């Protein structure tokens, strides 16, 4: 199969420009903002991966003056008990013993929250 030339026009067009133009400057600035600046930010902020991370938290614990005391008096399941809950005390009936309770609060130097350090039962 042969090709036939229908029309030909010998046009030789050459466009010339210098290397330092506004378009070249724009391409270089966009390249730096897109690729180079994130790499610099990552390098200055200790790298891409977290090398060391800690999180500490101290819970807020408050004593609510509620307790349940059960003491074994024998090997066969005998016990005495007392609590600050009136409904539980009614359930105990003959095993209920009412002690004298005193609390002593201390705030250690490393902790700003006072907590009960000693309880005395009589």
TrEMBL record:
Any GO BP annotation: cilium assembly
Topology term for the membrane: Multi-pass membrane protein
InterPro entries noted in UniProt: TMEM231
Keyword Membrane applies: yes
Pfam family, one: TM231
Residues that span the membrane, as ranges: 23-43
This protein's UniProt keywords: Cell membrane, Cell projection, Cilium, Cilium biogenesis/degradation, Glycoprotein, Membrane, Transmembrane, Transmembrane helix
GO CC annotations on file: ciliary membrane; ciliary transition zone
Signal sequence range: none
Location(s), subcellular: Cell projection, Cilium membrane
Homology family: Belongs to the TMEM231 family.
Protein function: Transmembrane component of the tectonic-like complex, a complex localized at the transition zone of primary cilia and acting as a barrier that prevents diffusion of transmembrane proteins between the cilia and plasma membranes. Required for ciliogenesis and sonic hedgehog/SHH signaling.
Protein name per Swiss-Prot or TrEMBL: Transmembrane protein 231
Native organism: Electrophorus electricus (Electric eel)
Gene: TMEM231
């Amino acid at each position: 199969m042969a090709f036939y030339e229908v029309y030909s026009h010998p046009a030789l067009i050459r466009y010339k420009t210098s290397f330092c133009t506004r378009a070249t400057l724009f391409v270089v600035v966009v390249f730096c903002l897109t690729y180079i600046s994130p790499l610099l930010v990552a390098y200055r902020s200790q790298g891409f991966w977290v090398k060391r991370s800690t999180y500490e938290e101290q819970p807020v614990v408050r004593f609510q003056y509620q307790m349940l005391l059960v003491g074994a008096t024998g090997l066969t399941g005998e016990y005495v008990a007392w609590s600050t809950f009136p409904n539980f005390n009614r359930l105990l009936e003959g095993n209920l013993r009412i002690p004298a309770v005193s609390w002593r609060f201390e705030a250690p130097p490393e902790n700003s929250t006072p907590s009960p350090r000693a309880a005395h039962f009589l």
